Structures are given as C-alpha cells and as structure tokens.
Fold:
Amino acid sequence: MGDIGFGSLGGILPELIIVLGGLLILVLDIAQADRQDSGRGYLAVSVLFLIVGLTGVLLQIGMEPYIVLSTTAIDPFATYLKLVIYTGMILVAIGGGSYMNRHATGRGEFWALFLFVTAAMSFAVSATNLLLLYLSIEFLSITSYILAGFLRTNKRSAEAGLKYFLYGSVAAAVMLYGMSLLYGATGSLDLGEIAQGLAANAEMAAIIPAATLLTLVGLGFKASLAPFYQWAPDVYDGAPTPITAYLSTASKAVGFAVMARVFVVALGAYRVEWAPILAGLSVLTMTVGNVIALRQTSVKRMLAYSSVAQAGYILMGLTAVVSSQQADLTVLGMNGLNGLLLYLFAYLFTNIGAFLVVLAVEDETGSTELDAYSNLVQRAPGMAWAMFIFLLSLAGIPLTGGFVGKFYVFGAAVQHQYFWLAGVGLVNAAIAAYYYLNVVRTMFFASDGEAATGRMAAPVAIQSVVLLCVLATIWIGLYPPRLLEWANSASRQLLALML
Amino acid sequence: MSASLVFFIVVAAVSLTSALGVVTSRWPIHSALFMLVNFITLAVFYVTLGAQFLAAAQVIIYAGGIVILILFVVMLIGSEKIGGPSGHRLWTPYAGVALGVLMLATMIYTFASSLFGAPGTADAIEAGHPKAVGMTLFTQYILPIEMAAVLLLVALIGALLLARQPKAGAQ
Structure:
C-alpha cells in the first residue's frame, strides 16, 4: 500500500490538471450570465490545459516505471499512449472546436466534458487495477455517449448517442462479468497479482477461456472489432465530425491499449490460447469493414467502415506478441506490440486529418456524400492534396505513416508464422486501396465540370491542423528514429511484465 | 431464552413472511413492497452480526436503489393484478421450484462447514466492518473513489443536457 500524500500525486499531475481544467470551465460557465457566449474562451482554456497536460506527459518520457496510489502505472507504455491521446485531443479541439461551438447548445458543458473524457482515457491506459480500469473505461464511455448525441436538434446525432449508449452498456456489463470471474479466480484486482494467482493455482485454468472471452467483448467494443462493431458505422456517421475524429482514434487507441495491458500482463501465460482467437477476430474485422466500405456513397460513412477495417490490421500486432526474451532476438525488433503502438500513432494523424477535411467540406456544402468532393482539387487544392495524402496513408502506401504501421504489424505476423493472417491482410489492403482511391478519383478527375464553382474557404484553424497532420503523416512515413525508440521501449517494458 | 434469540426469531419470522409475500402476492406493487421489507430485515441481520457497512450498503443499494427501480418499472408497464396459474406457461412453477432447490443446495453446501465450527463474525474476518472498508477505500482505492465522483458529476451534467428542453434561440 503506497503512501498517500501530495508527493505521491506527482505522477498523475497531468490528469489532475486536466480534471481541474474541466471543473474550472464548469465554474466559469455558471459564473457567466450570458447564455449566448461564443464558446471561444472555453476553447482556448481547454487547449491550454491540454497542452499543459501534454507537456507534463512529455516530461515523464524516459522515467523509471513506478506505481501511483497502488492502482496507476507511470510507465513507458502508458506515457506513449498518453502522448497519442493528448496530441489527438489537442488536434481535435483546435480543428473541430469552432464547429462544435457553432452547433452545440451548452458550450461550457461541452468543453468540460471534452477535458473529462481526455482524463478518463489517460487513466484507462495507465490503470493496473481492474477496478480503476473498469471505472475509467465506463467514464470514457458515458462521456462519449453524451458527446456523440450532443447536437440534440440533429436527429442523426441523437440516434448515434442512443445507439452508442445501448450497445455500450451491454458490452460494459459483459466485460464486468468477465472481470468478476478473474477476480473470483485469483482474489485480486491487480493485473500482476492476477497473473501470479493464475500461475500458482492451476485448477483455475478452466475459468480462463470464459473470463478472456467476456473481457474481450467489452474491450473489443471500444476498439470496434468485428462481432462487436455494429455500433461503429452509425455512431461515427451520426456523431458530430470532431467527436467522430476522436472516437475513431484516441478512444480506439484506449481500447487496444487496455486490451494489450490486460492480455499481456494478466493473461500473458495463456497467449497460446488467446492469440488464435485474436487472429480470427482480426481477419473477420478487416474483411467485414473493407467489404462494407466498398459500397458506401458517403465519405464519412466510408471512413467509419474503413476505421473498423483498420482496427483489424491493428489487432494483428497484438496477435503476434511474444515474450521479451524472444523479441530481442528477432531482426528489426518486431515484437508485434511496437507495431500496434506505431500504427496507433500514425493512424491518429491520418484519421483526424481525414475527418477534418470531411468537416471542412461538410461545412461548405452541407453534405458528406462523395458528390460533394467532385473536383475538390479546383475548389480547395490544399484540402484535396491533404486528403490525397491521408488516403494514401490509410491505404498503406510507402513514405506515409500508414505504411510504417502496416509494415510493422504485417512484419510481426510473418515473423511469427502467421502467414495466412498476413496474406488475408494483404488482400484486404488491396480491396481498401480501391475505395480510398475512388475518393481520390472523384476529387481530381471528376468528369462533370459543374462543381467547379468558386473556391472553398476552409477556416484557418482547420487548415493549420490539417497541415500539421500532413506533416506528421509524412514524418512518421520517413521512419523517425525517436518515435521508433519510444514505441520500442514502451512495448519492451510491457512485454517484460509478461510471466 | 435470551433476548437476542427472541429478537432473532421475530426478525426471522418477518423476513420469511415477507419473502413468501413476494412470491405469493398477486399485485406487483405488493410484491415490491414485501421485497423492501425483506431487504430491511436482512440489513437488521447484518447489524446484529457486526457488519454495519454491509447493512448500510444493503439499505442504500437494495432498499433504496433496486426497489425504487422495480417500482418505476411497475409504474411504467402498469400495475394490474397478475393472473392465476393460467397466466403462465405450464413449466414455469416447476422451473422456479427447481432453481430454488438448486440455490438452497448450493447455500447449504457452502455454509455447512461454518454451521458446526466457530461462528464467523464480521470482526473475525474483517469484512463488512466500516473501519476495514473505509481504510481500504480511502488508501488503496482512493483514486477509483475520486474518479467515481467525477464520473457521477459527468453523468449528472449529461442527463441535464440531454433531458432539458432546448431554449428557443439558443442555437
């Protein structure tokens, strides 16, 4: 039992600052009598607090792992994912903030919830205790339900919120049941102690398949894996676009991170059993996502299905995890987990950028259909070229971030003899390239010249964030040694915890 | 006969009667109220065993939360009198009896050992005692507790936001 005192709170200071920021916005909102406030101030305060949080996390890079308040780990793995989360939320806040300010009622509440959900994700990736894990995932979910249904006058947004809530509560209940089985079998909520308890008590092995599957339902729901993905297209399509941007990147990263931590730390000894299940889910997820995405006419909905398919590729990384001793022996250090982490980071910039382009087009034309993109290159050349790069990255073309991510997860799958998995993945990548490039064709080579009416003026905030995302996508595509080092140390540290 | 034994017999009688009332009553609302009485007698048992925290949780969660939820459901779907045996399928009573016997058997199996050994009190096993629970909650689990607090705040804000009438011209 750790000491309780202000000194012990140092490790979770970034999250505490974010929560305080949320409370501050609530107080400011009450103190202000004017209900017609533009919300710009709250946007600025939120971005400021997020940047302070990100700085705090950057300072934690390279620290020795330690446990705060006996439930939260400050380790390279959590720090890496917090970088992903804070970066994503800052990009979404700057790029999508003014859209939300214009369309949402209750702007103060929106920004407070935005900061709270960031803190919730941050706790979820660092929790080493099932109780905190469940609470923070539930915190993330409940806030996300509210944010997805935030535009109450918009029917599709309300539908998205309700659907997310209904599916989400069932998934959370099933996951809780799985966790209770783990607790019942070992008498501990701590992930490390669960692993030791299972190792010490061999007759409890019978409970592992049930507990694993039930826990997988809840976490797979968060990560939008195939049998539990039905909510994703409707929610991603109906929710306000900035919310979709974070749901499909940061929130998904949390699903994968928690899955990796629970499966590697608590159930690592049973990886021979769960790896094939994950491989099957991975194939199912990417195939279902890609095949349905082929038929979409709305770009936002197409990106939603593509996001499901991408979850399948990301899961390949977790399928191929090995113990740290083995990982050091293999060439290029592909231990599966670092592929997953790299993929999440590359996917963050690519997908947020793509959704912001969708947002800009939606703002201008009021539509997310493919027709609205015809001849985009003449109306907004910058946006069209940016979207081109994002789509290349999603398809996994070399020199983009998406390629590096795919290279690492496919490489890990091949190295661990999952040839069929890598094969199915490659076929899927080819299918995906078709519908990604279809958007490019519409943007650059639309046959009818009717749409070339005047230039489209995207807001400066969106333009700058999109530019940032393009630069980051290309930067990750150029194989940055610093990022690789972060991902490697994060993955090694987590794999070292595996029994 | 000692006073505590008399007290136990009285409370146990109330508990059993109310439990029977839950299953035999034809009015859903009566069943729900019988259940409330049953929950409260259970809380009294917890207090007599020294498990004050469990008693408080029993009253707050079961009597306060779950019975209210059941009453809401009864209110929403109507509180007509439940029909006689013709109302349900032929196998329903047998299935109910079978499940009840199964549960009784499990309980006897689990508690048989403690029937003859020394009685386990809350003090002895350090469970359900306010001090033990409080020490654990506010040291080891302080972070989850605080997070639950913020979570409740968020849920409250969300419920207000989604349920209140949109003001005209608020857009």
About this structure: The helical segments of chain B are 3-24, 28-48, 52-77, 92-116, 122-125, 130-139, 142-163. Chain B has two domains: 1-84, 86-171. The mean pLDDT of chain B is 83.
